[in-house]
Amino acid sequence: MTEKELVEKAKQGDRAALATLVNRYSERIYNLVLRILRRREDAEDVLQETFLTVIEKIHTFDGRSSFFTWIYRIATNAALMRLRKKKVVFQELNDDPDFQESIESRVFVDWSQDPSIGIYDREVRKKIDEAINKLSDIYRSVFILRDIEGLSIKETSEILNITEENVKIRLRRARQFLRDYLSDYFEERARSKNATSS
What are phi and psi of 135, to 5 degrees? Predict the structure, then answer.
């Protein structure tokens, strides 16, 4: 059965179809909100909250976006709302025009694809997570959806209900902040590696 057929059946009250949809997306939703919230208990709560919302609001899904986009939007909003309630303080990025011009003039490369970084190294992963945790939610959510979840600009735009241009701007700012934050760490690693090999 296709996703569209499952959604239609779920909208008509078919519990088996709804359960299939929940099972299909539960792992991805959990991983998404865990990356945003960083605490398993919070991620589990938001996962449950997301599917309760889906059950209550499935009849309002109009098919203008994919079901995947719709459910990701619910989960992302629930996770961000929880962060706001906890009053988590993040690093804010400058929004003035001079800052915008300075970042526009640089060459932006997806640093997470650089094999020299060794992104799967536990120490590196911990340092990257530490940097991601310092981003404010508007930049953090874009970075997670685009660079970690691998969603397209269009999908990220639909999930966060912002323009594609805003996705690109926020992503550039997030990547720049992360590179700046991590640069000293990676330079030190490189020096240690060179000292060891010489």
Answer: -75, 145
Q: How far apart are CA 20 and CA 12, in angstroms?
A: 14
Tell me the domains of the chain and their CATH numbers.
Answer: 3-86 (1.10.1740.10), 97-197 (1.10.10.10)
Structure tokens at 136: 């404010």
For 123-179, write each residue's pLDDT tens digit: 777 887 888 888 888 898 999 999 888 899 999 999 998 999 999 999 999 999 888
Residue 40: count other Cβ atoms within 10 Å of its Cβ: 10
pTM over 0.70: no
User: What tokens appear for 167 in the block?
Assistant: 């996705």
Q: Which residues contact 43 (CB under 8 A, 6 or more apart)?
A: 30, 33, 34, 37, 79
Give CA–CA dist 87/89, Å, rounded.
6
- Give the number of C-alpha atoms closer than 13 A to the C-alpha of residue 43, restricted to the C-beta side: 15
Tell me the C-alpha distance between 189 and 25, whole Å: 38
